[in-house]
Amino acid sequence: MQKESAPICTNWTSQNKLWSNLAEVAEFLHVPMPQALQRENVLFQHMHFKAGQRIHTLGQNFDSLYLVNSGFIKTILFDEFGTEQVLSFPMKGDVLGMDSIHCAHHSSEAIALSDCDIILLPYKTIATLSHSYDQLGQAIFGLMSKELARQQTRLSIHGSASAEARVAKFLLSLSERFFLLGYSKSTFNLRMTRNDIGSYLGLTLETVSRTLSALNELGLISVSQRHICINDAEALRNLRKLPSNKLKAKISECFQSSTISAWGMAPALN
Amino acid sequence: MQKESAPICTNWTSQNKLWSNLAEVAEFLHVPMPQALQRENVLFQHMHFKAGQRIHTLGQNFDSLYLVNSGFIKTILFDEFGTEQVLSFPMKGDVLGMDSIHCAHHSSEAIALSDCDIILLPYKTIATLSHSYDQLGQAIFGLMSKELARQQTRLSIHGSASAEARVAKFLLSLSERFFLLGYSKSTFNLRMTRNDIGSYLGLTLETVSRTLSALNELGLISVSQRHICINDAEALRNLRKLPSNKLKAKISECFQSSTISAWGMAPALN
DNA sequence: CGTCTAGTTGAATCGCATCAACAAGCGTGG
DNA sequence: CCACGCTTGTTGATGCGATTCAACTAGACG
Protein backbone atom coordinates (compact mmCIF):
# COMPACT_ATOMS: atom_id res chain seq x y z
CA MET A 1 0.00 0.00 0.00
CA GLN A 2 2.40 2.60 -1.37
CA LYS A 3 2.55 6.06 -0.02
CA GLU A 4 1.46 8.59 -2.62
CA SER A 5 4.61 10.60 -2.11
CA ALA A 6 6.50 8.95 -4.96
CA PRO A 7 4.96 10.22 -8.20
CA ILE A 8 5.15 8.05 -11.27
CA CYS A 9 5.88 10.88 -13.70
CA THR A 10 8.69 10.21 -16.11
CA ASN A 11 9.86 13.55 -17.34
CA TRP A 12 9.15 15.36 -14.16
CA THR A 13 11.53 17.83 -12.60
CA SER A 14 10.91 19.78 -9.49
CA GLN A 15 10.07 22.95 -11.41
CA ASN A 16 6.48 23.88 -11.92
CA LYS A 17 6.96 24.41 -15.62
CA LEU A 18 8.14 22.19 -18.36
CA TRP A 19 7.48 22.15 -22.03
CA SER A 20 6.48 19.45 -24.44
CA ASN A 21 7.01 19.66 -28.17
CA LEU A 22 4.53 18.60 -30.81
CA ALA A 23 6.02 15.14 -31.24
CA GLU A 24 5.52 14.34 -27.57
CA VAL A 25 1.95 15.54 -27.62
CA ALA A 26 1.28 13.61 -30.81
CA GLU A 27 2.58 10.44 -29.24
CA PHE A 28 0.43 11.05 -26.20
CA LEU A 29 -2.63 11.29 -28.41
CA HIS A 30 -1.55 8.31 -30.48
CA VAL A 31 -1.41 10.43 -33.63
CA PRO A 32 1.14 9.52 -36.27
CA MET A 33 3.61 12.31 -36.87
CA PRO A 34 4.40 13.11 -40.51
CA GLN A 35 8.02 13.85 -41.47
CA ALA A 36 7.10 17.26 -42.75
CA LEU A 37 6.23 18.41 -39.26
CA GLN A 38 9.13 16.86 -37.39
CA ARG A 39 10.79 20.21 -37.09
CA GLU A 40 7.73 22.24 -36.27
CA ASN A 41 8.80 24.12 -33.20
CA VAL A 42 5.55 24.47 -31.31
CA LEU A 43 5.86 24.06 -27.58
CA PHE A 44 3.12 23.20 -25.11
CA GLN A 45 3.25 24.37 -21.55
CA HIS A 46 2.85 22.09 -18.58
CA MET A 47 1.07 23.12 -15.43
CA HIS A 48 1.25 21.62 -12.01
CA PHE A 49 -1.74 21.34 -9.70
CA LYS A 50 -1.85 20.19 -6.11
CA ALA A 51 -4.63 17.94 -4.88
CA GLY A 52 -7.78 19.97 -4.40
CA GLN A 53 -6.87 22.74 -6.82
CA ARG A 54 -9.03 23.57 -9.77
CA ILE A 55 -7.71 23.03 -13.27
CA HIS A 56 -10.49 25.20 -14.61
CA THR A 57 -13.61 26.63 -13.04
CA LEU A 58 -17.16 27.27 -14.06
CA GLY A 59 -17.43 30.37 -16.19
CA GLN A 60 -13.71 30.67 -16.79
CA ASN A 61 -12.73 31.71 -20.29
CA PHE A 62 -12.24 28.76 -22.54
CA ASP A 63 -9.07 28.90 -24.54
CA SER A 64 -7.35 25.64 -23.99
CA LEU A 65 -7.81 21.90 -23.82
CA TYR A 66 -6.02 20.02 -21.07
CA LEU A 67 -4.08 16.83 -21.59
CA VAL A 68 -3.43 14.88 -18.41
CA ASN A 69 0.20 13.81 -18.09
CA SER A 70 -0.09 12.47 -14.57
CA GLY A 71 -2.48 12.56 -11.65
CA PHE A 72 -6.20 12.10 -11.09
CA ILE A 73 -9.00 14.55 -11.67
CA LYS A 74 -12.74 14.86 -11.39
CA THR A 75 -14.91 17.04 -13.56
CA ILE A 76 -18.20 18.34 -12.26
CA LEU A 77 -21.24 20.12 -13.55
CA PHE A 78 -23.60 22.29 -11.51
CA ASP A 79 -27.30 22.02 -12.14
CA GLU A 80 -29.74 24.89 -11.93
CA PHE A 81 -30.05 24.49 -8.16
CA GLY A 82 -26.32 24.44 -7.56
CA THR A 83 -25.96 20.77 -6.71
CA GLU A 84 -22.98 19.20 -8.32
CA GLN A 85 -22.83 16.21 -10.61
CA VAL A 86 -19.59 14.36 -11.22
CA LEU A 87 -19.08 13.87 -14.94
CA SER A 88 -15.82 12.00 -15.28
CA PHE A 89 -12.61 10.96 -13.57
CA PRO A 90 -9.90 11.77 -16.11
CA MET A 91 -6.43 10.33 -15.71
CA LYS A 92 -3.20 10.02 -17.66
CA GLY A 93 -3.74 10.41 -21.38
CA ASP A 94 -7.24 11.86 -21.12
CA VAL A 95 -8.21 15.22 -22.56
CA LEU A 96 -10.39 17.71 -20.70
CA GLY A 97 -12.37 20.69 -21.84
CA MET A 98 -13.81 19.39 -25.10
CA ASP A 99 -17.30 20.08 -23.82
CA SER A 100 -16.57 23.80 -23.84
CA ILE A 101 -15.27 24.27 -27.36
CA HIS A 102 -18.64 25.46 -28.60
CA CYS A 103 -18.81 28.45 -26.29
CA ALA A 104 -16.50 31.02 -24.82
CA HIS A 105 -16.71 29.85 -21.23
CA HIS A 106 -16.26 26.59 -19.42
CA SER A 107 -19.55 24.99 -18.50
CA SER A 108 -17.97 22.69 -15.94
CA GLU A 109 -15.18 22.51 -13.40
CA ALA A 110 -12.20 20.21 -13.14
CA ILE A 111 -10.65 19.50 -9.75
CA ALA A 112 -7.39 17.70 -9.05
CA LEU A 113 -7.87 14.63 -6.85
CA SER A 114 -4.14 14.24 -6.53
CA ASP A 115 -1.12 16.22 -7.58
CA CYS A 116 -1.30 16.60 -11.33
CA ASP A 117 0.84 17.46 -14.28
CA ILE A 118 -1.24 18.86 -17.09
CA ILE A 119 -0.24 19.84 -20.61
CA LEU A 120 -2.05 22.86 -21.99
CA LEU A 121 -3.23 22.57 -25.56
CA PRO A 122 -4.37 26.06 -26.59
CA TYR A 123 -7.42 25.59 -28.75
CA LYS A 124 -6.28 28.16 -31.30
CA THR A 125 -3.00 26.34 -31.73
CA ILE A 126 -4.78 23.03 -32.16
CA ALA A 127 -7.23 24.51 -34.63
CA THR A 128 -4.44 26.12 -36.63
CA LEU A 129 -2.30 23.01 -36.60
CA SER A 130 -5.24 20.95 -37.83
CA HIS A 131 -4.84 22.73 -41.18
CA SER A 132 -1.42 21.55 -42.08
CA TYR A 133 -1.57 18.47 -39.90
CA ASP A 134 -4.86 16.87 -40.74
CA GLN A 135 -4.26 13.73 -38.72
CA LEU A 136 -4.36 15.90 -35.64
CA GLY A 137 -7.77 17.27 -36.52
CA GLN A 138 -9.04 13.77 -37.15
CA ALA A 139 -7.61 12.66 -33.83
CA ILE A 140 -9.56 15.37 -32.06
CA PHE A 141 -12.70 14.28 -33.92
CA GLY A 142 -11.94 10.78 -32.74
CA LEU A 143 -11.42 11.82 -29.15
CA MET A 144 -14.66 13.74 -29.02
CA SER A 145 -16.51 10.95 -30.73
CA LYS A 146 -15.21 8.41 -28.26
CA GLU A 147 -16.19 10.69 -25.42
CA LEU A 148 -19.70 10.95 -26.87
CA ALA A 149 -19.98 7.19 -27.10
CA ARG A 150 -18.77 6.80 -23.52
CA GLN A 151 -21.36 9.27 -22.29
CA GLN A 152 -24.03 7.37 -24.16
CA THR A 153 -23.24 4.10 -22.47
CA ARG A 154 -23.19 5.92 -19.14
CA LEU A 155 -26.65 7.24 -19.89
CA SER A 156 -27.91 3.78 -20.63
CA ILE A 157 -26.44 2.52 -17.35
CA HIS A 158 -28.11 5.34 -15.45
CA GLY A 159 -31.34 4.47 -17.15
CA SER A 160 -31.62 0.84 -16.30
CA ALA A 161 -28.92 -0.76 -14.18
CA SER A 162 -29.28 -1.57 -10.48
CA ALA A 163 -27.03 -0.06 -7.85
CA GLU A 164 -24.96 -3.23 -7.67
CA ALA A 165 -24.49 -3.37 -11.43
CA ARG A 166 -23.48 0.28 -11.55
CA VAL A 167 -20.86 -0.06 -8.86
CA ALA A 168 -19.57 -3.27 -10.44
CA LYS A 169 -19.28 -1.63 -13.83
CA PHE A 170 -17.57 1.35 -12.29
CA LEU A 171 -14.94 -0.82 -10.65
CA LEU A 172 -14.41 -2.78 -13.84
CA SER A 173 -13.95 0.34 -15.89
CA LEU A 174 -11.39 1.69 -13.42
CA SER A 175 -9.65 -1.67 -13.46
CA GLU A 176 -9.52 -1.57 -17.25
CA ARG A 177 -8.15 1.94 -17.35
CA PHE A 178 -5.45 1.22 -14.81
CA PHE A 179 -4.51 -1.84 -16.78
CA LEU A 180 -4.16 0.15 -19.99
CA LEU A 181 -1.81 2.47 -18.15
CA GLY A 182 0.35 -0.42 -17.06
CA TYR A 183 -0.88 -0.79 -13.51
CA SER A 184 -2.48 -3.76 -11.86
CA LYS A 185 -5.95 -4.51 -13.14
CA SER A 186 -6.96 -6.30 -9.96
CA THR A 187 -5.80 -4.06 -7.17
CA PHE A 188 -5.82 -0.30 -6.94
CA ASN A 189 -6.74 2.69 -4.84
CA LEU A 190 -9.79 4.80 -5.38
CA ARG A 191 -8.85 8.45 -5.60
CA MET A 192 -12.35 9.79 -5.02
CA THR A 193 -14.79 9.78 -2.11
CA ARG A 194 -17.91 7.65 -1.90
CA ASN A 195 -19.82 10.84 -2.47
CA ASP A 196 -18.04 11.43 -5.78
CA ILE A 197 -18.68 7.86 -6.86
CA GLY A 198 -22.32 8.19 -5.93
CA SER A 199 -22.71 11.38 -7.87
CA TYR A 200 -20.98 9.83 -10.86
CA LEU A 201 -23.25 6.79 -10.75
CA GLY A 202 -26.48 8.53 -9.83
CA LEU A 203 -26.60 7.03 -6.33
CA THR A 204 -26.16 8.29 -2.79
CA LEU A 205 -22.95 7.77 -0.91
CA GLU A 206 -24.68 5.42 1.51
CA THR A 207 -25.82 3.18 -1.30
CA VAL A 208 -22.31 3.09 -2.72
CA SER A 209 -20.89 2.19 0.67
CA ARG A 210 -23.48 -0.51 1.25
CA THR A 211 -22.97 -1.96 -2.19
CA LEU A 212 -19.22 -2.12 -1.79
CA SER A 213 -19.75 -3.86 1.55
CA ALA A 214 -22.12 -6.33 -0.05
CA LEU A 215 -19.71 -7.15 -2.88
CA ASN A 216 -17.01 -7.53 -0.29
CA GLU A 217 -19.08 -9.93 1.76
CA LEU A 218 -19.78 -12.00 -1.32
CA GLY A 219 -16.07 -12.19 -1.93
CA LEU A 220 -16.26 -10.63 -5.38
CA ILE A 221 -14.02 -7.81 -4.21
CA SER A 222 -12.08 -6.86 -1.12
CA VAL A 223 -12.57 -3.34 0.14
CA SER A 224 -10.89 -1.51 2.91
CA GLN A 225 -11.44 2.19 2.79
CA ARG A 226 -10.15 3.26 -0.62
CA HIS A 227 -8.17 0.17 -1.37
CA ILE A 228 -9.90 -2.15 -3.79
CA CYS A 229 -9.02 -5.65 -4.84
CA ILE A 230 -11.06 -7.32 -7.56
CA ASN A 231 -11.36 -11.02 -6.87
CA ASP A 232 -13.87 -12.12 -9.48
CA ALA A 233 -14.07 -9.81 -12.46
CA GLU A 234 -16.21 -12.24 -14.41
CA ALA A 235 -18.87 -12.34 -11.72
CA LEU A 236 -18.85 -8.54 -11.56
CA ARG A 237 -19.34 -8.38 -15.30
CA ASN A 238 -22.36 -10.69 -15.21
CA LEU A 239 -23.93 -9.16 -12.16
CA ARG A 240 -27.37 -7.69 -12.64
CA LYS A 241 -28.66 -7.37 -9.13
CA LEU A 242 -28.18 -8.94 -5.78
CA PRO A 243 -31.01 -10.83 -4.16
CA SER A 244 -33.33 -8.44 -2.39
CA ASN A 245 -33.14 -7.97 1.35
CA LYS A 246 -36.49 -9.58 1.81
CA LEU A 247 -35.37 -12.60 -0.13
CA LYS A 248 -32.17 -12.72 1.86
CA ALA A 249 -34.15 -12.57 5.08
CA LYS A 250 -36.41 -15.40 3.98
CA ILE A 251 -33.53 -17.57 2.94
CA SER A 252 -31.62 -17.02 6.13
CA GLU A 253 -34.80 -17.81 8.04
CA CYS A 254 -34.73 -21.23 6.47
CA PHE A 255 -31.04 -21.97 6.62
CA GLN A 256 -29.86 -20.67 9.93
CA SER A 257 -26.29 -21.39 8.88
CA SER A 258 -23.99 -18.38 9.04
CA THR A 259 -22.03 -19.16 5.89
CA ILE A 260 -24.31 -18.92 2.94
CA SER A 261 -22.34 -19.32 -0.22
CA ALA A 262 -22.36 -17.63 -3.57
CA TRP A 263 -25.54 -15.94 -4.37
CA GLY A 264 -25.28 -12.73 -6.26
CA MET A 265 -24.72 -13.87 -9.82
CA ALA A 266 -28.29 -13.07 -10.47
CA PRO A 267 -28.90 -14.27 -14.04
CA ALA A 268 -30.40 -17.39 -12.54
CA LEU A 269 -32.34 -15.46 -9.96
CA ASN A 270 -33.83 -12.87 -12.18
CA MET B 1 -54.86 18.65 -36.07
CA GLN B 2 -53.18 18.37 -39.44
CA LYS B 3 -52.70 15.13 -41.21
CA GLU B 4 -49.02 14.33 -41.57
CA SER B 5 -49.41 13.80 -45.28
CA ALA B 6 -48.39 17.35 -46.16
CA PRO B 7 -44.66 17.59 -45.54
CA ILE B 8 -43.14 20.95 -44.76
CA CYS B 9 -40.06 20.43 -46.87
CA THR B 10 -39.12 23.36 -49.08
CA ASN B 11 -36.99 21.96 -51.85
CA TRP B 12 -38.75 18.66 -52.02
CA THR B 13 -39.68 16.99 -55.23
CA SER B 14 -41.37 13.68 -55.56
CA GLN B 15 -38.12 11.92 -56.50
CA ASN B 16 -36.24 10.06 -53.85
CA LYS B 17 -32.98 11.76 -54.70
CA LEU B 18 -31.91 15.32 -54.72
CA TRP B 19 -28.58 16.98 -54.28
CA SER B 20 -27.36 19.82 -52.14
CA ASN B 21 -24.25 21.80 -52.86
CA LEU B 22 -21.71 22.92 -50.32
CA ALA B 23 -23.23 26.35 -49.87
CA GLU B 24 -26.57 24.86 -48.88
CA VAL B 25 -24.99 22.51 -46.39
CA ALA B 26 -22.86 25.30 -44.98
CA GLU B 27 -25.92 27.42 -44.44
CA PHE B 28 -27.64 24.52 -42.75
CA LEU B 29 -24.75 24.20 -40.33
CA HIS B 30 -24.55 27.96 -39.83
CA VAL B 31 -21.01 28.01 -41.17
CA PRO B 32 -19.86 31.12 -43.05
CA MET B 33 -18.91 30.33 -46.62
CA PRO B 34 -15.67 31.90 -47.89
CA GLN B 35 -15.59 33.35 -51.40
CA ALA B 36 -12.78 31.06 -52.42
CA LEU B 37 -15.04 28.06 -52.09
CA GLN B 38 -18.13 29.49 -53.72
CA ARG B 39 -17.47 27.48 -56.81
CA GLU B 40 -16.40 24.28 -55.17
CA ASN B 41 -18.58 21.74 -56.89
CA VAL B 42 -19.10 19.16 -54.20
CA LEU B 43 -22.56 17.69 -54.08
CA PHE B 44 -24.23 15.96 -51.18
CA GLN B 45 -26.82 13.31 -51.74
CA HIS B 46 -30.21 13.33 -50.10
CA MET B 47 -31.96 10.20 -48.96
CA HIS B 48 -35.59 9.66 -48.20
CA PHE B 49 -36.82 7.44 -45.40
CA LYS B 50 -40.34 6.44 -44.53
CA ALA B 51 -41.55 6.32 -40.94
CA GLY B 52 -40.17 3.23 -39.25
CA GLN B 53 -37.20 2.80 -41.56
CA ARG B 54 -33.67 2.78 -40.25
CA ILE B 55 -31.28 5.53 -41.26
CA HIS B 56 -28.42 3.41 -40.04
CA THR B 57 -28.25 0.24 -38.01
CA LEU B 58 -26.06 -1.20 -35.31
CA GLY B 59 -22.85 -2.55 -36.75
CA GLN B 60 -23.30 -0.93 -40.14
CA ASN B 61 -20.14 0.49 -41.67
CA PHE B 62 -19.61 4.06 -40.69
CA ASP B 63 -18.76 6.32 -43.55
CA SER B 64 -21.13 9.20 -43.36
CA LEU B 65 -22.70 11.72 -41.06
CA TYR B 66 -26.38 12.48 -41.52
CA LEU B 67 -27.84 15.95 -41.59
CA VAL B 68 -31.60 16.07 -41.04
CA ASN B 69 -33.38 18.21 -43.60
CA SER B 70 -36.87 17.30 -42.51
CA GLY B 71 -38.64 14.74 -40.37
CA PHE B 72 -38.23 13.24 -36.92
CA ILE B 73 -35.88 10.54 -35.77
CA LYS B 74 -34.91 8.61 -32.71
CA THR B 75 -31.48 7.17 -32.05
CA ILE B 76 -31.08 4.15 -29.83
CA LEU B 77 -28.32 2.20 -28.16
CA PHE B 78 -28.49 -1.45 -27.15
CA ASP B 79 -26.99 -2.47 -23.87
CA GLU B 80 -25.26 -5.77 -23.22
CA PHE B 81 -28.57 -7.52 -22.60
CA GLY B 82 -30.20 -6.20 -25.74
CA THR B 83 -32.58 -3.75 -24.14
CA GLU B 84 -32.72 -0.49 -25.97
CA GLN B 85 -32.04 2.98 -24.68
CA VAL B 86 -33.25 6.04 -26.56
CA LEU B 87 -30.41 8.52 -26.90
CA SER B 88 -31.88 11.45 -28.77
CA PHE B 89 -34.72 12.71 -30.92
CA PRO B 90 -32.99 14.52 -33.77
CA MET B 91 -34.97 16.84 -36.00
CA LYS B 92 -34.37 19.42 -38.72
CA GLY B 93 -30.84 20.80 -38.62
CA ASP B 94 -29.43 18.13 -36.33
CA VAL B 95 -26.49 15.94 -37.27
CA LEU B 96 -26.40 12.21 -36.57
CA GLY B 97 -23.58 9.73 -36.42
CA MET B 98 -20.91 11.76 -34.68
CA ASP B 99 -20.68 9.13 -31.97
CA SER B 100 -19.32 6.65 -34.49
CA ILE B 101 -16.48 8.65 -36.01
CA HIS B 102 -13.94 6.97 -33.79
CA CYS B 103 -14.61 3.49 -35.06
CA ALA B 104 -15.45 1.76 -38.27
CA HIS B 105 -18.97 0.72 -37.33
CA HIS B 106 -22.04 2.42 -35.98
CA SER B 107 -22.53 1.78 -32.31
CA SER B 108 -26.15 2.86 -32.37
CA GLU B 109 -29.23 2.86 -34.59
CA ALA B 110 -31.29 5.71 -35.97
CA ILE B 111 -34.95 5.14 -36.79
CA ALA B 112 -37.25 7.49 -38.64
CA LEU B 113 -40.30 8.47 -36.58
CA SER B 114 -41.84 10.18 -39.59
CA ASP B 115 -40.98 10.48 -43.23
CA CYS B 116 -37.55 12.04 -43.42
CA ASP B 117 -35.28 13.79 -45.84
CA ILE B 118 -31.66 13.31 -44.87
CA ILE B 119 -28.51 14.77 -46.38
CA LEU B 120 -25.53 12.46 -46.42
CA LEU B 121 -22.25 14.03 -45.42
CA PRO B 122 -19.57 11.46 -46.25
CA TYR B 123 -17.04 11.63 -43.47
CA LYS B 124 -14.10 11.48 -45.88
CA THR B 125 -15.45 14.45 -47.78
CA ILE B 126 -15.95 16.41 -44.59
CA ALA B 127 -12.49 15.53 -43.35
CA THR B 128 -10.92 16.51 -46.66
CA LEU B 129 -12.89 19.73 -46.91
CA SER B 130 -11.83 20.68 -43.40
CA HIS B 131 -8.32 21.20 -44.79
CA SER B 132 -9.04 23.97 -47.16
CA TYR B 133 -12.17 25.11 -45.38
CA ASP B 134 -11.16 25.37 -41.77
CA GLN B 135 -14.39 26.94 -40.59
CA LEU B 136 -16.09 23.69 -41.50
CA GLY B 137 -13.77 21.68 -39.26
CA GLN B 138 -14.34 24.12 -36.44
CA ALA B 139 -18.06 23.87 -36.97
CA ILE B 140 -17.88 20.10 -36.58
CA PHE B 141 -15.82 20.56 -33.42
CA GLY B 142 -18.51 22.91 -32.22
CA LEU B 143 -21.33 20.52 -33.05
CA MET B 144 -19.68 17.66 -31.24
CA SER B 145 -18.83 19.83 -28.28
CA LYS B 146 -22.40 21.03 -28.00
CA GLU B 147 -23.60 17.47 -28.20
CA LEU B 148 -21.22 16.53 -25.38
CA ALA B 149 -22.53 19.36 -23.24
CA ARG B 150 -26.11 18.32 -23.93
CA GLN B 151 -25.40 14.76 -22.90
CA GLN B 152 -23.82 16.02 -19.72
CA THR B 153 -26.87 17.95 -18.67
CA ARG B 154 -28.98 14.91 -19.49
CA LEU B 155 -26.80 12.84 -17.22
CA SER B 156 -27.25 15.28 -14.40
CA ILE B 157 -31.01 15.20 -14.88
CA HIS B 158 -30.98 11.41 -14.80
CA GLY B 159 -28.96 11.57 -11.63
CA SER B 160 -31.17 13.73 -9.54
CA ALA B 161 -34.45 14.98 -10.94
CA SER B 162 -37.87 13.55 -10.10
CA ALA B 163 -40.13 12.01 -12.70
CA GLU B 164 -42.21 15.18 -12.85
CA ALA B 165 -39.19 17.39 -13.35
CA ARG B 166 -37.84 15.15 -16.08
CA VAL B 167 -41.04 15.10 -18.04
CA ALA B 168 -41.43 18.85 -17.59
CA LYS B 169 -37.90 19.51 -18.82
CA PHE B 170 -38.47 17.19 -21.73
CA LEU B 171 -41.58 19.05 -22.82
CA LEU B 172 -39.84 22.39 -22.43
CA SER B 173 -36.89 21.30 -24.49
CA LEU B 174 -39.17 20.09 -27.26
CA SER B 175 -41.06 23.35 -27.07
CA GLU B 176 -37.82 25.28 -27.38
CA ARG B 177 -36.63 23.27 -30.35
CA PHE B 178 -39.92 23.62 -32.19
CA PHE B 179 -39.81 27.32 -31.54
CA LEU B 180 -36.32 27.63 -33.00
CA LEU B 181 -37.59 25.91 -36.12
CA GLY B 182 -40.39 28.41 -36.46
CA TYR B 183 -43.21 26.33 -35.06
CA SER B 184 -45.44 27.06 -32.11
CA LYS B 185 -43.65 26.82 -28.80
CA SER B 186 -46.82 26.12 -26.89
CA THR B 187 -48.60 23.48 -28.89
CA PHE B 188 -47.18 20.54 -30.78
CA ASN B 189 -47.43 16.84 -31.43
CA LEU B 190 -45.20 14.25 -29.87
CA ARG B 191 -43.73 12.04 -32.54
CA MET B 192 -42.61 9.27 -30.20
CA THR B 193 -44.41 6.77 -27.98
CA ARG B 194 -44.59 6.93 -24.18
CA ASN B 195 -42.18 4.06 -24.20
CA ASP B 196 -39.62 6.07 -26.17
CA ILE B 197 -40.02 9.03 -23.85
CA GLY B 198 -39.62 6.80 -20.85
CA SER B 199 -36.48 5.24 -22.21
CA TYR B 200 -35.10 8.67 -23.04
CA LEU B 201 -35.81 9.95 -19.54
CA GLY B 202 -34.91 6.84 -17.60
CA LEU B 203 -38.52 6.11 -16.59
CA THR B 204 -41.13 3.51 -17.45
CA LEU B 205 -43.91 4.25 -19.88
CA GLU B 206 -46.48 4.05 -17.08
CA THR B 207 -44.69 6.69 -15.10
CA VAL B 208 -44.55 8.96 -18.13
CA SER B 209 -48.24 8.47 -18.75
CA ARG B 210 -49.14 9.12 -15.13
CA THR B 211 -46.95 12.19 -14.99
CA LEU B 212 -48.47 13.66 -18.12
CA SER B 213 -51.90 13.03 -16.66
CA ALA B 214 -50.88 14.71 -13.42
CA LEU B 215 -49.52 17.78 -15.19
CA ASN B 216 -52.68 17.85 -17.22
CA GLU B 217 -54.87 17.72 -14.12
CA LEU B 218 -52.91 20.58 -12.61
CA GLY B 219 -53.54 22.58 -15.73
CA LEU B 220 -49.89 23.11 -16.50
CA ILE B 221 -50.34 21.34 -19.80
CA SER B 222 -53.14 19.83 -21.83
CA VAL B 223 -52.58 16.34 -23.13
CA SER B 224 -54.65 14.26 -25.41
CA GLN B 225 -52.81 11.31 -26.80
CA ARG B 226 -49.82 12.80 -28.59
CA HIS B 227 -51.06 16.33 -28.76
CA ILE B 228 -49.47 18.61 -26.19
CA CYS B 229 -50.33 22.12 -25.23
CA ILE B 230 -48.12 23.93 -22.74
CA ASN B 231 -50.21 26.21 -20.57
CA ASP B 232 -47.73 27.36 -17.96
CA ALA B 233 -44.13 27.07 -19.08
CA GLU B 234 -42.87 29.01 -16.09
CA ALA B 235 -44.43 26.59 -13.64
CA LEU B 236 -42.96 23.68 -15.58
CA ARG B 237 -39.55 25.29 -15.39
CA ASN B 238 -39.72 25.70 -11.61
CA LEU B 239 -41.22 22.34 -10.91
CA ARG B 240 -39.20 20.04 -8.70
CA LYS B 241 -41.71 17.49 -7.59
CA LEU B 242 -45.41 17.17 -7.13
CA PRO B 243 -46.86 16.64 -3.69
CA SER B 244 -46.73 13.00 -2.75
CA ASN B 245 -49.77 10.81 -3.05
CA LYS B 246 -49.94 10.38 0.68
CA LEU B 247 -49.88 14.09 1.17
CA LYS B 248 -52.51 14.49 -1.51
CA ALA B 249 -54.66 11.89 0.19
CA LYS B 250 -54.36 13.64 3.52
CA ILE B 251 -55.21 16.99 2.07
CA SER B 252 -58.22 15.72 0.21
CA GLU B 253 -59.33 14.02 3.42
CA CYS B 254 -59.48 17.42 5.02
CA PHE B 255 -60.94 19.45 2.19
CA GLN B 256 -63.55 17.27 0.60
CA SER B 257 -63.91 19.81 -2.17
CA SER B 258 -63.28 18.46 -5.62
CA THR B 259 -61.47 21.52 -6.96
CA ILE B 260 -58.21 21.88 -5.18
CA SER B 261 -56.22 24.64 -6.76
CA ALA B 262 -52.63 25.09 -7.74
CA TRP B 263 -50.33 22.91 -5.83
CA GLY B 264 -47.43 21.51 -7.76
CA MET B 265 -45.00 24.39 -7.80
CA ALA B 266 -43.04 22.63 -5.17
CA PRO B 267 -40.26 25.09 -4.27
CA ALA B 268 -42.30 26.02 -1.26
CA LEU B 269 -43.00 22.43 -0.42
CA ASN B 270 -39.51 21.12 -0.56
C1' DC C 1 -65.43 -8.16 -37.11
C1' DG C 2 -61.17 -9.46 -34.58
C1' DT C 3 -56.39 -8.34 -33.75
C1' DC C 4 -52.65 -5.51 -32.53
C1' DT C 5 -50.42 -1.60 -30.69
C1' DA C 6 -50.56 2.58 -27.79
C1' DG C 7 -52.18 4.62 -23.81
C1' DT C 8 -54.46 5.00 -19.19
C1' DT C 9 -55.18 3.80 -14.55
C1' DG C 10 -55.12 1.00 -10.18
C1' DA C 11 -52.90 -1.86 -6.46
C1' DA C 12 -48.98 -3.96 -4.52
C1' DT C 13 -44.07 -4.24 -4.10
C1' DC C 14 -39.27 -3.10 -4.03
C1' DG C 15 -35.17 -0.47 -4.35
C1' DC C 16 -33.04 3.34 -3.11
C1' DA C 17 -33.03 7.76 -0.48
C1' DT C 18 -33.36 9.80 3.78
C1' DC C 19 -32.39 10.43 8.48
C1' DA C 20 -29.58 9.28 12.12
C1' DA C 21 -26.02 7.31 15.04
C1' DC C 22 -21.53 5.97 15.27
C1' DA C 23 -16.47 4.66 14.15
C1' DA C 24 -12.13 5.74 12.07
C1' DG C 25 -8.54 8.72 10.26
C1' DC C 26 -6.17 13.04 10.49
C1' DG C 27 -4.48 17.46 11.31
C1' DT C 28 -4.42 21.25 14.88
C1' DG C 29 -3.28 23.25 18.99
C1' DG C 30 -3.18 23.31 23.94
C1' DC D 1 0.67 13.46 24.85
C1' DC D 2 -4.47 13.78 24.56
C1' DA D 3 -8.47 16.61 23.45
C1' DC D 4 -10.85 18.53 19.79
C1' DG D 5 -13.02 19.30 15.47
C1' DC D 6 -13.67 17.86 10.86
C1' DT D 7 -14.12 14.88 7.08
C1' DT D 8 -14.93 10.23 5.42
C1' DG D 9 -17.01 5.98 5.76
C1' DT D 10 -20.18 2.37 7.78
C1' DT D 11 -24.47 0.61 9.19
C1' DG D 12 -29.39 0.56 10.77
C1' DA D 13 -34.45 1.90 10.57
C1' DT D 14 -38.00 3.92 7.98
C1' DG D 15 -40.62 5.80 4.14
C1' DC D 16 -41.31 7.51 -0.39
C1' DG D 17 -41.30 7.22 -5.34
C1' DA D 18 -40.96 4.65 -9.18
C1' DT D 19 -41.49 -0.08 -10.98
C1' DT D 20 -44.16 -3.98 -11.75
C1' DC D 21 -48.13 -6.50 -12.77
C1' DA D 22 -52.53 -6.31 -14.41
C1' DA D 23 -57.01 -4.86 -16.27
C1' DC D 24 -59.11 -2.04 -19.35
C1' DT D 25 -60.06 1.53 -23.32
C1' DA D 26 -59.30 3.55 -27.72
C1' DG D 27 -57.63 3.67 -32.43
C1' DA D 28 -55.61 1.60 -36.60
C1' DC D 29 -55.83 -1.80 -39.96
C1' DG D 30 -56.93 -5.69 -42.77
UniProtKB/TrEMBL annotation, chains A, B:
GO CC terms of this entry: cytosol
Every HTH crp-type domain range: 161-234
InterPro entries given in the database record: cNMP-bd_dom (IPR000595), cNMP-bd_dom_sf (IPR018490), Env_Response_Regulators (IPR050397), HTH_CRP (IPR012318), RmlC-like_jellyroll (IPR014710), Tscrpt_reg_HTH_Crp-type_CS (IPR018335), WH-like_DNA-bd_sf (IPR036388), WH_DNA-bd_sf (IPR036390)
Coiled coil: none
A Pfam family reported for this protein in Swiss-Prot or TrEMBL: cNMP_binding
Listed Gene3D superfamilies: Jelly Rolls (2.60.120.10), Winged helix-like DNA-binding domain superfamily/Winged helix DNA-binding domain (1.10.10.10)
SUPFAM superfamilies: cAMP-binding domain-like, Winged helix' DNA-binding domain
Cyclic nucleotide-binding domain: residues covered: 48-97
Name of protein: Cyclic nucleotide-binding domain-containing protein
Key words, A-Z: DNA-binding, Transcription, Transcription regulation
MF term (GO), any: DNA binding
Superkingdom, natural source: Bacteria
Record flagged with keyword Hydrolase: no
Keyword Metal-binding attached: no
CDD domains: CAP_ED (cd00038), HTH_CRP (cd00092)
